[in-house]
Amino acid sequence: MKKLINAPETVVADALRGMAATHPKLAVDAEAGIVLRAGGKVPGKVGILSGGGSGHEPLHAGFVGRGMLDAAVAGPVFTSPVPDRIGQATAAVDAGAGVLHIVKNYTGDILNFGMAAEDADDDGIKVETVVVDDDVAVARGEGAGRRGTGATLFVEKLAGALAETGAPLAEVAALARKVNERSRSFGVALSSCTTPANGAPNFALGPDEIEIGVGIHGEPGRYRGRLTTAAETTGIMLDAVLADLPEAAGDPVIVLVNGLGATPPVELYIVRGEVERVLAARGIQVARSLVGNYVTSLDMAGCTITVCRADEQMTELWDAPVHTPSLRWGA
Amino acid sequence: MKKLINAPETVVADALRGMAATHPKLAVDAEAGIVLRAGGKVPGKVGILSGGGSGHEPLHAGFVGRGMLDAAVAGPVFTSPVPDRIGQATAAVDAGAGVLHIVKNYTGDILNFGMAAEDADDDGIKVETVVVDDDVAVARGEGAGRRGTGATLFVEKLAGALAETGAPLAEVAALARKVNERSRSFGVALSSCTTPANGAPNFALGPDEIEIGVGIHGEPGRYRGRLTTAAETTGIMLDAVLADLPEAAGDPVIVLVNGLGATPPVELYIVRGEVERVLAARGIQVARSLVGNYVTSLDMAGCTITVCRADEQMTELWDAPVHTPSLRWGA
């Protein structure tokens, strides 16, 4: 295992200390794995909270700030945070208007966020939960259901922007669910990730093999294929995504071309160019797009593509100001 | 070679097409390798131009926009752009106040930018050149001199901000040289990069070996060492940087922890945390910092650290608004 780390057991706290040093507008409790906005609660605003296992940086802590999350709760690598920590962060961001939990669809997260939401309810804090399950590589109804991947960023951005306007919890939760329903993702890996605790790759790939339909925790893909061109690989990914995405005539899309951690910007931009070509040929207009490492899987090489069919409200919320370490625009 | 590309010979144009699709505020000529601001020349403003071989994305095209570059010229992978293209971009951004060329210190770039500057002069365009040579892994006076790496971002940001205020060319060039003189960098690699044309790594490293003092084109390091902890590795890098950086009593520093392409955010933030620890112990205050993939070396794993001793003017210019694809803040 070749990683710039100190020890497997201090990876998360060490990284959070680095985030704290870099971003003065975050309030970071590195040992507890809780990241809040430094300014404290925003009176009357719905609190937006997300979290999950670490190893997907900048998701979620890199998205804490005005216009997006109020809190991120970071568990150990690829392991859900415990309910107590989620509860602690929920209480910290409840300003009387309730809290939205944005939860990726994994068994541990569903369980732990569910328990935290119940406890919060006992304490008089209203919690709504949106489960993100956008990965079309998993069939509907299979096992624990579809995994949550790149659409999490869209849900966090758009729900965060709506909450900033003072919208009530029910409305913010409904928007978050709409964003998830209108988003689909698919990923390919050119290499496996290596977790610090295991020290060896989760799976082995031959020199010209890729894993197609891979998860963001080293879950193997739907099948294994040969690495050909970026054009062909992008075609496979978009075929899977678009086949599953309900038509919304005339609605443009927001696209995320997301690096899994070890794929450099030049390759991601090449994929982005192919996305443009494929979608244009299908008459789909890309209204907005984002290219970079946003939802990573430690040191995995490869990428995911997320497509979201955006209505007018969603495009406006996308354009709304956001001031976080890893997503930043507007006044 | 495992890369998301179409063919080695189309890597640069394909990536630039992806950038064009993603960033409507860029005017991209993908075939010529020229990226300008979509809005055209800014009357009376000094034009800020940089460029060089591709493979270091987002440097330089990702830094074109208000508050930073007016033009980036992208050569083939790890190969300087030809003088004609540099000249074409120089003419495109000269608004009567002259143009600053920001050139990383490599033989091909020095030669080609020099010829372009001479030609521009013949055409009545005033050009000043700043050569960036911040890599302390190369001894002063050795071979072609020190390589230009992470400090290029600092020079581009600060000179870009000063030019935006309407400052004259001589003043912008003097600031650019000051930033370079006050900046030092050092890098380590955990793996080599693989150029699309070669298809094989530039050097081979054992499972626990790292290359210390590596360049951003797969140039081997000063020596080879054993990978230990992030703390020890950071210590080695900062020792090299600080031993060479002139004291500037009381001046705080701006720090860049830069990923070389295949190192994920979680590891870069761990290094950032160690930087804070080492500098605090030496009584050096980090005024501002940046963590991410900014000056990459294709798919190399590893990182560089750049430290810049910033006076008050430099910190103010750092904070000035910047609106580019990969660096963005302020109104």
From TrEMBL, chains A, B:
<dbReference type="InterPro" id="IPR050861">
    <property type="entry name" value="Dihydroxyacetone_Kinase"/>
</dbReference>
<dbReference type="GO" id="GO:0005829">
    <property type="term" value="C:cytosol"/>
</dbReference>
<dbReference type="GO" id="GO:0047324">
    <property type="term" value="F:phosphoenolpyruvate-glycerone phosphotransferase activity"/>
</dbReference>
<dbReference type="Pfam" id="PF02733">
    <property type="entry name" value="Dak1"/>
</dbReference>
<dbReference type="GO" id="GO:0004371">
    <property type="term" value="F:glycerone kinase activity"/>
</dbReference>
<dbReference type="GO" id="GO:0005524">
    <property type="term" value="F:ATP binding"/>
</dbReference>
<dbReference type="GO" id="GO:0019563">
    <property type="term" value="P:glycerol catabolic process"/>
</dbReference>
<dbReference type="InterPro" id="IPR004006">
    <property type="entry name" value="DhaK_dom"/>
</dbReference>
<feature type="domain" description="DhaK">
    <location>
        <begin position="7"/>
        <end position="329"/>
    </location>
</feature>
<keyword id="KW-0418">Kinase</keyword>
<protein>
    <submittedName>
        <fullName>Dihydroxyacetone kinase subunit DhaK</fullName>
        <ecNumber>2.7.1.121</ecNumber>
    </submittedName>
</protein>
<dbReference type="InterPro" id="IPR012736">
    <property type="entry name" value="DhaK_1"/>
</dbReference>
<keyword id="KW-0547">Nucleotide-binding</keyword>
<keyword id="KW-0808">Transferase</keyword>
<keyword id="KW-0067">ATP-binding</keyword>
